[in-house]
Amino acid sequence: MSGSLAASNLSVRYETPGGSVHALRHVDIEAHPGEVIGIVGESGCGKSTLVTAMANLLPANARIDGSISWNGIELAKLDAHRQRLLRGDEIALVSQDPMTAFNPVLTIGDQLVDFQHHRKDLGRAEKRARIAAMLGRVGISDAERRMHSYPHELSGGMRQRVAIAAALLTDPGLLIADEPTTALDVTMEAQIIHLLRELRRDYNGIIVIVSHHLGVIAELCDRVYVMYAGEVVESGEVDAIFHDATHPYTQALLACDPARFQQKLDRLPTIPGMLPNLTQPPCGCVYAPRCDRVLASCGTVAPPLVELSASHVARCHAVSS
Amino acid sequence: MSSVADASVSMPDRQRFPLLRALLADPFTCVALVLVAGFLLTAAFAPWLAPYSPVKIDVLHKLQPPSSTHWLGTDHLGRDLLSRIIYGARTVLTIAIVSVLIAGAIGLLLGLIAGYGPRWLDAILVLTFDSLNSLPMIMFALAIITVLGAGTGTLIIVIAATSFPSYARLIRAQTLALKNSDYILAERLLDASAARIIFIHLLPNVVGPLIILLSMDIPVVIMVEAGLSFLGLGVRPPTPSWGSILYDGYTSIRSAPFMVIFGGMPLVLATLGFTFLGEGLRDYLDPRLQLRRPA
Amino acid sequence: MLAYAIKRIGLGLLILVLVMVAMYAAVFLVPGDPASVALGPRATPELKRLLIERMGLDQPIWWQIVEFFRNALTGNLGYDVWSNRPVSTLVMEALPNTLILGLTALAAALVIGVPLGCLSVMRRGTVADAVIGVLSVGVIAVPSFVVAIYSLLVFAVTLRWLPAIGAGEAGDIASQARALVLPALAIALGWIGYIARMVRASMMEVMGEPHIRTARSFGLPEWKIVSKYALRIAIIPTISLVAVGLGSILSSAVFVEAVFARPGIGKLITDAVNTRNYPVVMGTVLVMTAIYVSITIAADLLIARLDPRVRDVFRG
Q1: In the Cβ-directed half-sphere of A122, how many Cα atoms lie within 13 Å?
Q2: What structural domains does chain B harbor?
Q3: Count of domains observed in chain A
Q4: What's the pTM value of the predicted model, to 2 decimals?
Q5: Distance CA B268, CA C150 (A)
Q6: Could you tell me the CATH number of the domain that includes residue A218?
Q7: Based on C-alpha coordinates, what's the Rg of chain B?
Q8: Between chains, do B260 and C245 touch, taking CB under 8 Å as contact?
Q9: Least enclosed by CB within 10 Å: which of A91, B86, B202, C128?
Q10: Complex ipTM, two decimals?
Q11: Does residue A311 form part of some domain?
Q12: Residue C311: what pLDDT?
């Protein structure tokens, strides 16, 4: 199953007793079969909301404007039942924290059988056989025995492999990995990245990888969307973003990545200031209060989308002038 | 268990009578409040409200259905049912409040001792609480009644003895949590006396949840009083009690069903009123406390 | 797990011994000897001496306690003061009726209460949820013996659908079942509300956990998420509360048995208390406490079985 993912002018806000929280504003995203796209940004930038919207899992108090479509189907307009039919069939999600992602009182095998519920054509034994094969493919030895394990009997890295296996078992056209390595230690992280790279070779759907970790994105993705305060501030091919970053926020983000330091530093660099309050987003550029290249217009006029090359765009006054 | 501290911090607004406002905002709590107030006033002013003496026997007019002279009819001895119910409110509420206060005081004392005292004492007390808690309450109650004989005093002892362990456990848990909190530690480092710590810091913090628990237990006590009196093991006749009224009605359920119908009503209304009021209090003060078990 | 079980059972036995010792001590401390209290104004010196001998009251108290436990271990709980029948026989005659009543009530409460709680969670925030919530608190509040009397009045006396008294004809299952309906429902009603509330509360907590989001992200239908993924976890605290609450089911049984004149433990002990029949009271309290304590232990062990996380803590 393959198809294209597209969001255009997508905004999501949460209605809360404290007012509307504008978690996502005017986001444009496009992905085609075979592509791996990365979404990067610091905590609270709207990554999770974007993922939740793609996976049709937005809570009841979320309001969607604009469009997000999968294979030409407008996701926001689907009723709850049709949304559910897409989940775990064409769209699969590998959740953030492998430690809590599985039900603690059901065995791995039991849960993975249930997760294939869209495959009415398969019997229980066939589903278990598929699980065993898939667990082997994601690098779990002794798959038959592992299926009888409860989640807490597996290590974090192993659970993340199981989570990836669970998603792949559904043959999704869109595989979303939400912070797939954040909860893991460094060696496990490297192993999971390695696994994901292997998988993308013989997978022809779309993979979306969300991370605040630039290394993960650089290693795995074709195209990158940099998000800040609910907006995509810069997007482009992975090389363009990492070697030719234009937006001041992307530049600052890259400068803060310890893996990219050229020499030993006395102090770790940080971006001064805090994220804007998303109940009342600023009318100009969202990054203006923290930007070191701020212009007079930044505080009042929303920055235009500047096309730097065919696929590389940035939303910034300083770049356009 | 930081619930105490949170409960006092999370008072929503600084209006006057915030508790009363919050309780009145919920229609069920509102009705409950009216019911409870009604019963308390009835109990307080029973001699002025009751049309007859609750113990005046008039066998010539026994088992009379409701009429303009006897609004709720008369019982098998010709006593006015309404008057007996009104005085019954006095009996049951007195017993309920006295026994719950006694149990609360014992629980508070033992809980503080267990939580603040030496560890060996704590171990003994916890074993005692657990042993008492692990008994089926009614068996325990019946055993006490066998030994002491039925009567109002026994009833109060029974209720206090069966309910104090749960209060003591709550107080102990709260005390332990507070004892290890940073600010008590700071006080102890400043050489504050045990009395100062207990009276200035612990007591005000543990009393809130205790009051909720006590208020939630009042309907249980009402039920136990009525149940034991129904069995003839509670308040001794001729003292009017809702339980014995119900029993008198039960014996003439075929000839005078109105007695059972009216006799059960105050019990239903009082337990409903106190329960919904307790629920409202709990929702406002500490939603994490659990609901009481069925009576 | 085994060590845990042994520890729990040991504590249970200790509690039993403590209770009986305390009861004996209380009898001993009470002013007036039990024999004259029991006989009341009828007491003649001969009668009293006979009764004292029969109750073993002429022995020192510690000897009485030791005797009681030694006899209890061989199944001898003493003799009824008035009829001289063995207490163990009386208890064994009455016990099945009470256990059937309690278990039927509990089963009915679980069968109705758990789905109601689940329904509340699936329809959370709707009118159905609110109605279930208010009704639950309402039925919890009302004493079971009042429900028993009202249901007796309506269904047995007025409508004559079901029998008003007794436990049904011996050997006739249908008649026994008919006699069970009203008492069991009177006890179950409050528990239906309680269980529905408990299930709803712990289920709402579980529904917020990340693994439920995982199940949702795989498009599992809501009923399956609620009934399998959430209930398996949410039922665990409910089971322990139900087990702890079995004591109040037994309490309710005492009152409800009185209303329906059902020959069970409740009636046995109430009559014994009224006549100050110490051996019967002691024997019944011992048996009921033993049953109650063992059910609590069984529930703890069941929880350990249901929750693999707890299971491993005990295994390790």
Answers
A1: 17
A2: 27-61+78-292 (1.10.3720.10)
A3: 1
A4: 0.79
A5: 11
A6: 3.40.50.300
A7: 22
A8: no
A9: C128
A10: 0.84
A11: yes
A12: 57
